[in-house]
Structures are given as structure tokens and as C-alpha cells.
Amino acid sequence: MNLLKKLSQLRALREEDGQILPWMVLLVILFLGMAGLTVDVGHAYVSYRELQASTDAAALAGAYAMTQPSATAASVNSAVVAYSSQTGDSNATPNLPNDKISSTLTCVTDSTLVPAPCDASATLSNVVKVTQTAAVPTYFIQALRMFGVNTTATFNLTAQSAATIESGKATQVNVAMVVDTTASMGSQDTDANCNNTRIHCALAGVQTLLQALSPCSAGSTSTNCAGAFDQVSLFTFPNVLASTASNDTSCPSSNPTITPYTTPGIGASWTTDQAATTTYQVTNYLDDYSSNNQSGGTLNSSSAIAIATGGSGKSGCSGMQTPGGDGTYYAGVIYAAQSSLAAAQAANPGSQNVMIILSDGDANSTKISGAGHNGNVYGSLDDQCQQAISAANYATAAGTTVYTIAYGAASSGCSTDKSGSLAGLSPCTSMMDMASSSADFYSDSTASQNKGECASANSFSLNGIFANIAAKFTSVRLIPYATS
């Protein structure tokens, strides 16, 4: 009996049933930790990119405010805060709760990165430095607390940016603003930065651009300056019957008559395009958009471009809408806009040409006048996104800076692009390749349509995007934060 008892005890000591349980607990902790770090760190990285982008925009806005004749420390700080990620500001985002922003003005006299003297600004400063912080909550890695692992509840993010003003006057700018008014732009964008129709939010961004530009030369305090300085022409696609284009610029507003897409000649005389019965141009190049002829003023309610963008404030003047019906094809409007810019520059020697294209990036029209299936040849029913890229690259080669804004662009599409060197490209890639450089490509990736599918280094709200673009061709630029 004693022998049997001892054998039973030895067998119990060697029993392995249940030994896997401690290992499973350890593996669960390990897997939760890895998953938590991947998800939470990934979310923190995206949030940091948004924080840095809005900090850059805020610094540029502050530097631009410094160039105004009546600039004060208070007005500069107000401009900085307006483009922060705080709730209610232009770059607000749910990814950055509890955002805080601060700015300081400094006078830098011994750096080649800061060419302007301190008295170039009424603030007697030539650099604005901005710091923005946000506490981003963690989610998954907090689950480790149930196993006794001490984890952080938030990632504390900090972004810094500095901007300076240039010496001398800013360059006169001719802006061709191209806005997509196809049917997709009439859908609702439920993102917190919009919460309206996509065309409404796009036009609100254009209003931001207009208010940042200078109808009179930089530094002028005149309310009746002679001759345009920054002038803007509004283009749209699909094109319209020329005799009805004024429906967008009169009150009450109504849709013009849509016609099949036309293909203006590459490098054709602008007077030839103006004589056509169909047009992509909604307004001529105008400098009457500001109520006081200065940057930062309210929009002039009588200006055709203010009316067309819905900024007149008049009853029944909602601006351009989305008649749609002909699909999307934008190579034609790009060539037309470039011809107009060439004419504007010839009339204003020394001026700078800029084209801004806002679209979701997908080209798929079946209604192109006289079109056949000719591959990526201009005017073909095939490879329409590639045709748009070629048109934009042509404009860049001609000296025009092309900015593109991918508004709710998808990571798949461009269904007509089945041949050529870029066969299978996406609307997002198409918009990126149309920009003059990667720094000129912007996206609103928080839009509810195709949310998160098209990100760029310049990815924030439409108002923030337009303010950032305007700052690029005014008299300000970013510099290293450590500059002193």
C-alpha cells in the first residue's frame, strides 16, 4: 500500500494537465500589448501629422498677419489661433482633443533665413513661433491594466513651427481657380469640418482664399488702388453654354446650361477660347472681391466672384451648384485655364501664375465632344485621368504653379485608365501627380466620402488648405523653429 501511495504521488508530480494556462495568460498579455501598441501608436502618429500640419498653417497665418499695415501682437495671435486644431477653429479635428496653442513674436537680425528687417512689420517683429500641444487618448493598451501592467492613458503630442516675412513686396499673382461642380459635389459631407454639401464647403474654402489675397499691392492702405494686384478667375467643369454662365454670378443664382465637354487647343490663344459658344470660365480675372481692397477684408457683395462662391451674403445667392449630368473630365478646363493665365501674365509682366484645382480626382465622362477611343491622346474617351495629369504638367512646364486639392478622393477608380504608362492609377494618385510638386498636393482626407483614403503631408480642412496655399504666394514662408 505504501508503495502504491508513493507511485500515485510521483504520478501527480509528473502530471502536465493545465500547464498551458500560465502560458496562455502570458501570450494574451503579449498579443494585447502588441496590438495595442500598433493601433494606439498608429493613431498617435496620424494625430501628430494633423497637429504639425495645423501648426504650420497657424504659423503662416500669423506671419501673413504681420505683413498687414495695422498689424499688432493681438491681431497676429488671433490669426494664429484661427488656424489651430482647437474646437471651432479652421483645423479642428476629433483626433486632437484638449488642443492648446501659443505663439510668440520675435525680432531676428542675424540669420540669413530671415531677410526682412524687424521694422518691416508694424509689430517690429519678423518671426512668429507657434507651439501646439494635444493629449491623444490610448484605447487598446489600457486593456493591459487588468493584468496589472501599468500603461499610459494618453500620448502627449507637441508640434512647433516658425514663419517669417520676406523683405520687399510680394509678387503679383494671377489665380485660375478650378472648382469641380459635377454631381458628386452635391452630396453631403458629414465631417465636422463641413457638415454641409461638398460644393458649399469647397466654395467656403475659396472665400477663405479670396480674403487672404491682396487686391492692391502689398502694404498699400488705399481703398481705391489703381490696377489689379492679386486677381482671380473662377473656372468650373463641366463646361457651360457661355450665354448662361452669368447664372452663377447673378442674384438669385441658378444653374447655367451644361454642354458636352469641349477640348480647347493646347496653347491656343485665349481670345479664341473666349469667342467660343461654350466656356469653362465663370468669371473674368477680377480684383474687386474685397470690400476695402485689402487683404483680410470682408467680401464685396457686388463682386461676381463673391456671388459665384456664395460669399455675397445676399438672399438667393448660393453660388455655383452641381448640375452634373456629363460625368467628370478635366483636361479641357486645365488647358483653358492655362491659356487664360498666359494672357493674364502677358498683360502684367513679372506676375506669377497659379492654378488651383479642387476635385475628387476621378475622370470618367462619356460626353466629350467628338471623342473616340484613342488611348491617352487628349480628347479621348480613354485614359482620362492620365490626360488630366498631362494637362497639369503642361501648365507646370509653362511656369504655372499647380496646386491640387483632393477632396474626398478615392484610393481606387479612374475606370477609363486601362492603358498607357499609368494604367490602373487611382483618383488620389491622379491629383497628386497633377500638382507641380509634392508640396503643392493637398487633401481633405477627413471628408465623409472616401474618408481616409487619400492622405498627403498637407492634409487638413478645406479652409486650412486654402489659407496655406494663399500664404505660399504671398510674402511669408516657414523657417526652422530654432532660428534665432
Report on the structure:
It is a single chain. With 484 residues, the protein is α/β, with parallel strands linked by helices. The protein folds into two domains: 26-165, no CATH class; 173-453, von Willebrand factor, type A domain (Rossmann fold), CATH 3.40.50.410. Helix content is 30%, strand content 17%. The protein has ten helices and 13 strands. It has helices at 2-14, 20-66, 73-82, 198-212, 270-274, 304-308, 331-347, 384-397, 427-434, 462-472, and strands at 100-106, 127-137, 154-165, 173-180, 188-189, 196-197, 231-241, 278-281, 352-359, 401-407, 441-444, 458-459, 476-479. The strands form three sheets. A seven-stranded mixed beta sheet has the order 8-7-4-9-10-11-12, with helices on both faces. A four-stranded antiparallel beta sheet has the order 1-2-3-13, covered by helices on one side. A two-stranded antiparallel ribbon has the order 5-6. Strand 10, helix 9 (427-434) and strand 11 (441-444) form a beta-alpha-beta unit. Helix 2 packs across helix 10. The longest helix is centred in the first third of the chain and has 47 residues, at 20-66. The protein is globular. The model is unreliable at 218-223 (pLDDT under 50).
